[in-house]
Design a protein that fits this description.
Radius of gyration: 22 Å
Largest sheet: none
Distance between the termini: 52 Å
Shape: rod-shaped
Structural class: mainly alpha
Strand content: under 5%
Number of strands: 0
Helix content: over 70%
């Protein structure tokens, strides 16, 4: 019985570590997405005369 409890504790600890790692990855991804959104928003509202800036409207994902 004590051995099974220990196995479950180890499994729980592994799951907690995985959750922490995924949470960190999601936070990093969210931060990157927010930065991209802000750049796109700036382009849409303020425009750009630079030819090196892609046309945002042409690169929008198509809704499915």
């Amino acid at each position: 019985m004590a051995e099974r409890i220990r196995e479950l504790e180890v499994e729980r600890d592994q799951q907690r570590s995985q959750i922490e790692e995924l949470t960190t990855q999601m936070a990093i991804e969210k931060s990157g997405n927010e930065a991209r959104f802000q750049r796109l928003e700036a382009l849409l509202f303020h425009g750009s005369s630079s030819s090196s800036v892609p046309n945002v409207a042409q690169h929008r994902p198509h809704p499915e």
